[in-house]
Design goal:
Blueprint (H helix, E strand, L loop, with lengths): L5 E6 L2 E6 L1 H12 L4 H12 L10 H16 L12 E5 L4 H17 L3 E6 L2 H5 L8 E4 L2 E5 L5 H11 L36 E9 L3 E8 L4 E5 L3 E9 L1 E6 L2 E6 L3 E4 L5 E5 L3 E9 L8
Parallel strand pairs: 3-4
Antiparallel strand pairs: 1-2, 3-5, 4-7, 5-6, 7-8, 8-15, 9-14, 10-13, 10-15, 11-12, 11-14
Helix pairs in contact: 1-2, 2-3, 4-6
């Protein structure tokens, strides 16, 4: 099984990977395009169950999700979906401006403590489907927020805050917490807390305040953070895969189990040689101090 054979779709609040989804869609497209949803769901469940385990308890829920994705595959209208999470797309072939917009979005997400499914769409044919006037373009939960320019960080912040999508810690605590988006009092494998997504950067913020930021990232192959500076010392811990880190022109390959510190105010970039996951800890300079 290759990575390309697995397609991840949203079911409830989670993303689940299925083997052979697009193949099945292609096989039944002609015969089932005009069939009612319940008939399509039954056929998809039968076919997909051959390569994927689908419990009897979740058949209805999975069937609805399969039909939704099938309709999207055919380009047919799909009922409004109220997003359970935050989905962001940056459209652009990979120029300096497009990469800068992606970095700006990630920085704002980290600053305000939001987790998001962030995808940088670089394929020209895929970009054309969004009918934007130009690139770079920013889409938040299906809505085009801007195109042909890079908005200010303040504007990006306002757009994201208006989504109202804030995750809690997942625990039963009712008092404010300093660490969020992770279940308390349970052991975890860090590299399992964020999934890989084809062509995407996915993040989960654990803590964010004026002095500290802790964020977990996954990067598909070829994705990364283009050259930029940070307002503090940033420590990257590679949890899986391999990345190339460039600090002010000094390039190094960093692999699983290794860490590297990127100094404050020094230009740096991170690029996925292979898909990789990292924990980024940013220790910020106190607001009342200045760089020397």
């Amino acid at each position: 099984m290759t990575i390309s054979e697995v397609t991840q779709i949203k079911i409830d609040k989670h993303k689940v990977g299925f083997v052979g989804l697009e193949e099945v869609f292609k096989d039944i497209a002609e015969l089932y395009a005009e069939q009612p949803d319940d008939v399509v769901a039954e056929e998809l469940l039968i076919r997909l169950s051959k390569k994927n385990y689908i419990s009897d308890k979740v058949q209805k829920e999975y069937g609805r999700a399969f039909v939704r994705e099938f309709r999207k595959f055919l380009g047919q209208p799909v009922g409004d979906e109220s997003p359970e999470g935050l989905e962001i797309k940056v459209l652009g072939a990979g120029c300096v401006l497009c990469n800068s917009l992606e970095n700006e979005v990630m920085e704002v997400l980290s600053e305000i403590g939001l987790s998001a499914d962030l995808e940088h769409v670089r394929d020209v044919e895929q970009i054309a489907k969004y009918s934007v006037k130009g690139t770079p373009a920013l889409i938040i939960n299906g809505k085009v927020m801007c195109s042909g320019r890079i908005p200010s960080k303040n504007m990006i912040r306002k757009w994201l805050e208006k989504t109202g999508v804030y995750e809690d810690s997942g625990g039963a605590m009712t008092k404010p917490v300093l660490i969020k988006n992770i279940l308390f009092s349970e052991p975890h494998n860090l590299d399992e807390l964020v999934a890989y997504e084809s062509g995407r950067v996915v993040s989960r913020t654990f803590s964010q305040n004026s002095s500290l930021s802790i964020t977990l990232f996954s990067f598909d192959e070829g994705e990364g953070l283009s050259r930029h500076t940070a307002p503090g010392d940033a420590m990257v811990q590679i949890l899986d895969g391999e990345a190339v880190v460039n600090i002010d022109g000094k390039e190094m390959t960093v692999g699983k189990g290794q860490v590297v510190v990127m100094p404050a105010d020094i230009p740096h970039s991170v690029t996925a040689v292979k898909r990789f996951k990292m924990l980024l800890t940013l220790v910020k300079r106190p607001q009342n101090s200045s760089s020397k």
